[in-house]
Amino acid sequence: MADLVIEFVSEEIPARMQAGAGRDLARLIETALTTLGVWHDDSVATGLCAPRHLLAYVTNIAASQPDRIIEKRGPRVDAPEAAIAGFLNSAGVSREDLVEEDTPKGRFLFARSEITGGDTAALLAPIIIDILTHFPWPKSQRWGRGKFRWVRPLHRINILFDGKPLAGSLDLGGGDVINFGAASCGHYFEAPDDIDLTGVTSLDDVQARLRAGYVMLDQDERHDAIIKDAKKLAASRSCHLNETQLGGYLADIAGLVEWPTPLMGQIEDRFMVLPPELLQATIATHQKYITLSDADGKFSSNFIVLSNRLGDAVRDKVIIAGNQRVLRARLADAEFFWQQDQARQLETYLPALGDVTFYEGLGSIHDKAIRMEKLASAIAPQMPSANLKAASRAARLAKADLVTGMVGEFPELQGIMGGYYAAASGEDKAVCDAITAHYRPQGPADDLPATPEAMVVALADKIDTLVGFFGIDAKPTGSKDPFALRRAALGVIRIIVDGQLAIPLGKILQVAASGYGFVEVDADLLPFIRDRLRGYLRDQKMRHDVVAAALADDDGDDICLMAARASALAGFLAAADGAGLMAGWRRVSSILAAEEKKAKTAFAATSDPALFTETEKALFAPLSTMAENQDNIESQLAALGALRSPIDLFFEKIVVNDDDPAIRLNRLGLLAMIREKMLAVADFTKIEG
Amino acid sequence: MPTSQSDEIRTDFQSIILNLQSHWAKQGAVVLQPYDMEVGAGTFHPATTLRALGPDDIWRAAYVQPSRRPSDGRYGENPNRMQHFYQFQVIFKPSPADSQALYLDSLKAIGLDPDKHDIRFVEDDWESPTLGAWGLGWEVWCDGMEISQFTYFQQVGGIECNPVPLELTYGLERLAMYIQGVENVYDLDWDGVPAAEGGKTYGDIFKRAEIEFSGWNFEHADTDMLLGHFRDAEIECGRLLGLETPLALPAYDQCMKASHLFNMLDARGVISVTERAAYIGRVRGLAKGCCEAWMGITETTTNG
After folding, report:
1. Are residues A172 and A282 part of one domain?
2. Cβ atoms of A230 and A261 closer than 8 Å
3. Domain housing A293
4. DSSP labels for A349-386?
């Protein structure tokens, strides 16, 4: 058993690719070693990536391949001599080495040869070249005169097997070659000298050697160091990190440093009047600094920048001053837009939306705003708590911020800036809040719009988008969903289900379609939305068979009702009556299936009470009086639940296959009634187990 | 602002240019002069666009290029944005094995010692849709500020670069502002001569131009005339490329003209979002044709 180290040293690997590169390298080497037959049950491949280092450490691989027998099938035994000679030639064996064996296709000649397993060390170079040549970088490049592609110019390939350097080389093409070595290197500025990897005994050992050169190889180690040290630094100013915001770009920060050193910077007071979302976008997204909140939870004027240098009082001052200077310029830009944009009423931006294409064939954003206004006016009356005037006003203004200077510069602030600018233009708070939140939810984890008017505008926006793209046949296919229509549909579903909105979706879609001048709503849209609903419910941990049963033949448009049906059914089946009823259902359906197969006909759901015993009467009574109330799933299920005992009693006391064919048929009719009533509520055939 | 240039190195604007020129001359670059046409970036200079492709197997050049981006004009009111600014451009083909070290040495030459700062190489893939060109590389950050673009060219005019050139672009104003510790570009010391002795700032030289050109770019340029010029340049470029012996360099001049005229039209706000892509495609078609003619590739398939 021996360990293997593979290290590639290159120029800076993009931060966003580092985690994936580590995983890919570990996976590829595991696959390659498995193919060689030297991967062991105890083998572990770990991939680590820092800006200039990509490394895999593999433990416990076999020092040599196991011996193995290779068998080649030749021609039939009675094949012409020429064919046999050809086989001997290709297999490299002589006639007496061949054995004869029977196969289902006849008697054949086989050549068997025993292959002695090779030394692992001698087999590694080609697989490493293969990994290098086929590494799945999202983007790669050539450099110099070479033909070889890597994410950025590659400088060193270090391979150690059992602590010893492995010979080999990579031909870059154009006359350039990288010879395998054992010399890694430290931090570009702090410890640029070679770091000898010869004799490494463990991954910890490798990491320790690099750490001594101020390189943290492990992205997780860099993450943790950044968080820990930044927290400490923040605490020294009675601040804490805005950690919820950090998730999105911590990997970016950690991917830009070999050795993170947090430094505290200061935002100038005059900028602190800017909206916190704008400060966050400028400071975090664009400059990759860590923002802080003060003890009161307010956005702090302190921020943390991660330097890639060791601490040094003089240099740190220069670095902080430089970063503050950049931030000042950025914030001055933001401040300029903030003031400039507010000098006009939000509504005056509307005409300029006419120059922005929503999508070819679907008009301009201005057209969309007008459609959304109409649509909001159609949706709002369905929501008793929504103020129609505010909702339609918000829908009209919702997109106006897209042509402001600020959103041009910070697209991620769309909606949010609109809300601020609406407030500055004297719009009602309900209007402002609706504009702010109307892009929500942006994904499965995002919050829903909180106010009724915001829900109306969010629905109007998403429904308009869905109807439009389906209308021009730009529907999602397979994994392709360039217009995020699945997300839009999921947003519609979440708003409706969460808000318990009994909205006649079909009608609303029709209003949206007429806004585009479409004759009708594309026929695939409602089924698409229903399908997303099924997905949504499954994501809510609802059993897939329960979802299928509740929504089996649903061709309705009441999302809220469908979701309620599914969750009621799930609740029912989890309770005692429901579970018990399912036992009865399985007997009912298996008896009917068997008998109907024999009879080659389906039994009618009718039964003659004159032929009943008391037990059958007790079952027939609730069955015949069950109301056909389609809307109230709860009472339907309660009625089914009430069947449980009579059904159980029926199977306990009654033999269906009575000798009298009339009685037998009557009882089968009773079972068919149970089936009919149950299937009217949900498709219980879909329930598994 | 305390930056850390060593005492001997002069940091006025013109000295930064002189120091970069002599540094790269020592590295074996031919020091060229700006191309005498309006272009949006130093990349447009034929010494980069065309020489990145051929015919020389080794090509090293360094030059200043005035760059015009009409829509970046701010009437001289914004401390960092101008419609006319300078780029220092370096092109080294093939890209040297020690490209990063060479670049860092050039920072030392202008008084920016990398050891006294926090220098980073941050992913920035470069693409010029108008030139049909792309490359991979970084923007280089110094204490959080972008001071250069560092690109390994992969394609120009839709043609693979072989060998691969290294392109360095220094934003001179921004770099000088950082080195001089100045917050407003117009306060940059141009010549190192005290004002009392007639020394000039960047503002002395360019502020009036920024104000006037912003007005022209945004308000007064005759859009019908610009459209006409664009069409003329496009037609002339096509005609020169269509000659039995295509005239690649004069055609490329027309291509640069068309590109700049498109930028002017864009600044005047007469190009809609949907038209934009079409215009860029037209210029790219010209650039592709010029690159192919330059390389002696005869079958031109300009489909944008």
Report:
1. no
2. no
3. 219-342
4. GGGGGGGSBSSTTS-BHHHHHHHHHHHHHHHGGGSTTS
Q: Which residues of B touch A (CB under 8 A)?
A: 1-4, 78-80, 94-97, 99-100, 114-123, 125, 135-138, 142-145, 152, 154, 162-164, 178, 183, 272-274
Q: Is the pLDDT of residue A332 over 50?
A: yes
Q: Which two tokens stand for residue A540?
A: 């809510």
Closest-CA residue to A284 (of A358, A336, A230, A346): A230
A376's tokens? 């909001």
Alpha carbons A443 and A560: distance in angstroms, whole number: 20
Which chain B residues contact residue A357 at CB under 8 A? 272-274
Measured in degrees and rounded to the nearest 5, phi and psi for residue B92 equal -125, 115
Residue in B116, B136, B162 nearest the CB of A141: B136
Report chain B's C-alpha Rg in angstroms: 20
Average pLDDT over residues A597-604: 87
Query: Does residue A460 sit in the same domain as residue A596?
Result: no
Q: Is the peptide bond before B94 cis (omega within 30 degrees of 0)?
A: yes
Percent residues over pLDDT 90 in chain B: 87
Dihedral sign computed on CA atoms, order B70, B75, B79, B85 = positive
DSSP A188-249: TTT--SEEE-TT--SHHHHHHHHHHTT----HHHHHHHHHHHHHHHHHTTT-EE-HHHHTTT
Would residue A298 count as lying in a domain? yes
Say if CB A120 and CB A61 are below 8 A apart.
yes
Find residue B244's DSSP bridge partners.
none
With vertex at residue A506, the alpha carbon angle to CA A504 and CA A512, rounded to the nearest 5 degrees, is 110
Asked if B121 and B140 touch (Cβ cutoff 8 Å), the reply is yes
The CA distance from B107 to B87, in Å, is: 15
Residue A307: its chain B contacts at CB < 8 A? 118
Confidence of residue B162 (pLDDT cuts 50, 70, 90): very high
Quick one: A515 and A433 in the same domain? yes
**Binary contact (A153, B138; C-beta < 8 A):** no
User: Does A349 reside within a domain?
Assistant: no
Mutant choice from A10, A16, A141 vs B, greatest count of B C-beta within 10 A: A141
Spatial contact of B246 and B299, defined as CB atoms under 8 Å apart: no
**How many A-B residue pairs are in contact by the CB < 8 A criterion?**
112
Convert the pLDDT of each residue in A11-64 to its tens digit. Answer: 999 999 999 999 999 999 999 999 999 999 999 999 999 999 999 999 999 999
Are A153 and A125 spatial neighbours (Cβ–Cβ below 8 Å)?
no
Residue with tokens 């060998």: B163
The number of domains in chain A is 5
Instruction: Kindly state whether residue A531 falls inside one of the protein's structural domains.
Output: no
What is residue A304's predicted lDDT score, i.e. its pLDDT?
A: 96
Residues A153 and A239 in one domain: no
ipTM of the assembly?
0.93
**pTM value?**
0.79
A631 falls in which pLDDT band (50, 70, 90)? Answer: low
pLDDT value for A633? 81
Quote the tokens at residue B34: 């700006």
**Predicted pLDDT at B274:** 66
Give the chain B residue whose CA is nearest to the CA of A289.
B144
Identify whether A555 is part of a domain. no
Closest by CA to A284, choosing from A239, A235, A233, A242, is: A242
The residues, any chain, with a CB within 8 Å of residue A409's CB and separated by 6 or more, are A333, A334, A337
CB contact set of B23 (below 8 Å; sequence gap of 6+): B105, B106, B109, B110
Question: How many other β-carbons are positioned within 10 Å of the β-carbon of residue A477?
Answer: 8
Written as six digits, the tokens of A298 are: 């307010």
Q: Return d(Cα A615, Cα A650) in angstroms, integer.
A: 6
Cα angle A265, A271, A272 (rounded to 5 degrees) comes to 85
